[in-house]
Specification:
Elements lengths: L1 H11 L5 H7 L1 H15 L12 H18 L6 H21 L2 H7 L1
Helix pairs in contact: 1-4, 2-5, 3-5, 4-5
Length: 107
């Protein structure tokens, strides 16, 4: 909730444009997409919920970026592209964890 609120305030103040805020939230978009996929495939009961490496990295980058924006730093567009890439990588990691091969590797 904090990240959503902070991004809304930063957008309202003009420190961030809508596509940059959307890029920062791309991991959450991909997480919702994964949830929808699991619901459609009716595999909700077999999913083991745990954190993923790319999700943790995205969270860390979100907070560093938010702190920088609050203190008036300007970030290049490539940083926001990196957020989208990291969101996609988190999605792929979630898909990989859902495979039987991944379950065997984690035991």
């Amino acid at each position: 909730f904090f990240v959503y609120f902070a991004l809304a305030v930063l957008c309202q103040e003009g420190r961030l444009v809508w596509w940059e805020a959307a890029a920062v939230l791309s991991r959450d978009f991909f997480l919702c997409l994964y949830g929808i996929l699991i619901l459609v495939k009716r595999e909700w009961g077999s999913v083991v919920f745990r954190s993923v490496r790319w999700g943790k990295a995205t969270t860390a980058l979100q907070f560093v970026t938010l702190i920088g924006l609050v203190y008036g730093f300007s970030f290049p567009w490539i940083l926001f592209v990196i957020f989208a890439i990291m969101g996609w990588l988190a999605f792929l990691e979630l898909l990989q964890l859902g495979t039987p091969q991944a379950a065997l590797r984690t035991k």
